[in-house]
Design a protein that fits this description.
Strands 7, 8, 9, 11, 14, 15, 17, 18 and 19 form a nine-stranded antiparallel sheet that branches. A four-stranded mixed sheet has the order 1-2-5-6, with helices on one face. A four-stranded antiparallel sheet has the order 10-16-12-13. With about 325 residues, it is mainly beta. The protein starts with a strand and ends with a strand. The protein has two domains: about 100 residues, 3-Layer(aba) Sandwich (Rossmann fold), CATH 3.40.50.1820; about 210 residues, Jelly Rolls, CATH 2.60.120.260. The protein has four helices and 19 strands. The radius of gyration is 21 Å and the shape is globular.
């Protein structure tokens, strides 16, 4: 199975295929290859770079070597290809790593807590801190998925600079202290939010961001590492939607597609939360109706709250390699 970390078409499909085949056919050799590519980038380019990112080598050649070894073995009988369980490109560090499992066996689950004053920390919130942040979500002025959306899908949103979103009042941005050493996250990213709304439905879109230092390469860049939307009415079931109760603190948890990213020393980790990502996702009326059949009057402005009190601690669960 081959996929690209920056595939805007169906990134999750690669992981789901790998997991399904591994579960249903445990005795066969199954290899996951994930490189720093957009959709089909392992065949459509040399993989030396993507947008502003320089990978310092033609990464597509690595996949071609793996594929050649695989077909030589299974089509021509020239030995059994010695392939790792997962051959994955570590973004941020720009290197290939072979793992015996995916996610790697040595990862540790750690919660990144949202804190007062828009801080992000591995330490939980303390009593006495401001218990929530809030913003107004207006369907008439949605947050775009890139600064100036074109007519066609802008696949560069998968790694785009999020400074334009951070400047908006309807986007909450939480930032860690500068890292004292490199920190590698490997595997799915799992938001576990505590939220409320003045409406009866809302989107809560979560973005994990690598914030570059103000000096050096790409000064101040806020590179999207992974982002995913969640429509709150589907928080418990895709087939049986449930309305939000206005003002009631509600738990929303979901899983974002995996990453293998090294946040380098001196960088900061960022998390953004917003309630629209237009037109990547359709507008949520923010009332409990079928969005496809919503009338103009159904689209209302609402106040969203994201909680970070000790008894209602919003967090992003990540898998960290020691």
């Amino acid at each position: 199975m081959v996929g690209g970390w920056f595939d805007a078409e169906d990134l999750a499909g690669t992981f789901r295929t790998f997991e399904a085949i591994s579960e249903q056919n445990p005795t066969i050799q199954t290899t996951l290859v994930m490189g720093p590519w957009a959709h089909g980038g392992w065949l459509r380019s040399d993989g030396k770079g993507l947008g502003p990112m320089d990978f310092q080598a033609p990464t597509s050649a690595r996949f071609q070597q793996i594929a050649f070894s695989f077909f030589e073995g299974y089509l021509k009988g020239k030995g059994s290809p010695e392939l790792a369980r997962a051959v994955v490109f570590q973004t941020g560090a720009n290197r290939w790593v072979s793992e015996s499992n995916w996610p790697p066996a040595n990862v540790i689950k750690r919660p990144l807590f949202l804190r007062a004053n828009r801080k992000l920390s591995f330490d939980p919130p303390q009593a006495g801190e401001q218990p929530y942040d809030e913003y107004v979500s207006d369907p008439k002025s949605p947050v775009p998925y890139v600064e100036r959306p074109p007519a066609d899908l802008a696949s560069e949103y998968m790694y785009g600079d999020q400074r334009f979103a951070a400047a908006r009042p309807d986007v909450l941005t939480y930032v860690s202290e500068p890292l004292e050493r490199d920190l590698t996250m490997a595997g799915p990213v799992s938001p576990r939010l505590r939220v409320s709304t003045s409406g009866t439905d809302s989107d809560f879109d979560v973005k994990l961001i690598d914030i570059y230092p103000d000096q050096g390469a790409s000064p101040g860049r806020r590179q999207l590492v992974r982002g995913e939307p969640m429509r709150a009415k589907f928080r418990n079931s895709l087939s049986q939607p449930q309305a939000m109760i206005p003002g009631e603190i509600t738990a929303i948890g979901f899983e974002m597609p995996g990453i293998y990213h090294a946040f380098r020393r001196g960088h900061r980790i960022g998390v953004q939360i917003q309630s629209s990502w237009f037109p990547l996702t359709d507008l949520n009326p923010q009332t409990f109706v079928d969005a496809a059949r919503a009338a103009r009057a159904d689209f209302v402005k609402v106040t969203e709250r994201v909680y970070h009190a000790p008894q209602a601690a919003s967090q992003i669960q990540v898998l960290v390699q020691p």
